[in-house]
Amino acid sequence: MSHWRLDTHHQTLVFGLADGMPAALYWGPPLPADEDLAALEAAGQSMLTGGMLDALPPLTLCPEARRSFPGQPGLSLSRRGVPLHPKFGGCTAEAGAGTLSLTVTDGDAGLALTFSFEADADTGLITAATRLQASEPVEIHWLAAPVLPGPQQADEIVDIAGRWIGEFQLVRTPWAPGIRLREATTGRSGHEHPPFALFPDTGAGRTSGTVRAMAFGWSGGHRMIAEELPEGRRQIQWGHAAGSVGAQSDWTVGPLQLAVSAEAGMGGTAAAFQRHLYDRVVHWPCTPGARPVHYNCWEAVYFDHDLPVLSDIAERAAALGAERFVLDDGWFGRRDDDTSSLGDWQVDAWKYPDGLKPLIENVKSLGMSFGLWVEPEMVNRDSDLYRAHPDWALGAEDQIEGRGQRLLDMANPAVRDHLFATLDALLTANDIDYLKWDHNRVLPAPDAAQTTGIYDLLDRLRAAHPQVEIESCASGGGRIDTGILSRTHRVWLSDSNDALERLRMQHDAALFLPAAITGAHVGPRECHNSGRILPMSFRAWVAAQRHMGLEMDPREITPDEAETLKRVISWYKSTRAWRMAGEIRTLDSADPAVTAEMQIARDGDRFVLFAGQSRASDQTLPRPLRLTALQPDARYRLSLTNPEDLPRQAHGPSALLDGPLTLSGAALMQSGIRLPWSWPATMWVVEGERL
Ligand code: GLA
Predict the structure, then answer these.
(1) If one looks up domain 4-46+54-281 in CATH, what number appears?
(2) Where is the Glycosyl hydrolase family 36 N-terminal domain (predicted)?
């Protein structure tokens, strides 16, 4: 019997053969290098009892319906409308350093299935994909990336839901007989079901216990199935959204990324994902840690672009510390509101009679670089592009529009060539080093060709303009997945600049996303989509947790607010190099009113603790906050960075206020620290240094 294994320092995957088909026998924390894999396989076998088939249908990397598999099969195909029930076998393997690919075929049906895996020794992640090759095209109704067993010593599935201005909400569902199915059917990875999930063992939390985590790198909508089979086994499948793929002769599902934390809970899988995204998935055109402070003009001026006003705003933004000025929607066509001009990517000569150059030159003279908003996949019917090429729009004439716009058919090479030429000309003629790339409506119907089309366009543009960074935005966080991140450099996590909402969203998004790619802006004093008024200090510290920016009219800022903002921006600049490359460990807070995380440098020599008081606590005094991921026998010196945020009602002893405070890692992790008493909407920032 053949066995194979793949290892990183975080996880082991073991494969065997079941009736000719490869199956994952084990996916979990590392096993010893000399583990007896045949014994492991034997130990995993169960006896049978009454009411069953004479053998247990195997849970393979692609469970087949024709083997009487008692759950969701891994593929469902037809050819010219006739269902196919292939019989795969004849497994061949190719193993390299950290790579494994297993191929099975069905000669009669003219099909081959290849399961490929790559283990990253540095980041600890394993990447997996399933490729189907067919001698004649087959209709793909469902094809799963390599199917893995779900943990049985586990009570819950944790996946992610969300909505506009409420992204990244954790959803906990009990494992139960039958299927937990998430499906993003809108043609984007979507606010509703971003393709990430966690599978904690019973009792695991953010800082302890065994957790498995998965992300599916596809921006066109996915289906995730977590199923408990009738006899108790569990399986996890990921693939493209139903009905989106059509007939293909060569189709790959993946990458599916896998992380395991043996003891450190969701913090362990988060750290591996953050590292992998930062080191491997995102292709940085620059020094990745030096994330420049952004200024984005959207919530300052919306569509009302006026050169003297924008120049004044740019000067004020630069004086506050901004390093990149991003001109948002409203600069092109006759775009005075959101009813027209998408598709007409020429500078509006009324607003910018001399083109963008005067503004760009001013921005550059202030020491900032220049970024521009675009939404290339879209068209308004009121546009020159639509009038010239109505046939380039996707979907039926009577479709429901979104924000008054339609999609362009990205499967059409003429559309892609046109968009490439237009954007290439814009980037060639102007000194632009950043694009905010938006996608503000869902598809009329899910269609994988839209996604392969946009990937192709992005790849061509990146090859032609390798110095340009791209931000993935889709009404905020509607297109966040590891597929788009292999072609972009930042995500606009949410259109909500409300720091309280952001505190929560950033906390949960950090279970996968590193700080460096997560855009976070200081919004207007009165938040434009919640009406809340929050202190500048809190707004600034929440933005400083991630890739920081400003997105308000700086003319509204008082001198006191400006001082606070400048102080936090200069702290951001002095710490970004190690924080952006480091890891975020969200904490299990004993007080639900406190949302806390640590950001730890790669070498472990320093960290910063952010603890946000989102509302008044139920009890009178702060509960101790236990830190994580420190070296138990090392000593750390802790200093409070922002004592000026102490409210006037707080008095009495505080080791942190009197600080610095020096304690062992063990004491900090077991006993914890007492934060100063605070009002709601206060962020405590505590910096730690290993002695
Ligand atoms: C979307 C984005 C916003 C802004 C507007 C411009 O809603 O999420 O940040 O860029 O488009 O129209």
Answers:
(1) 2.70.98.60
(2) 20-239
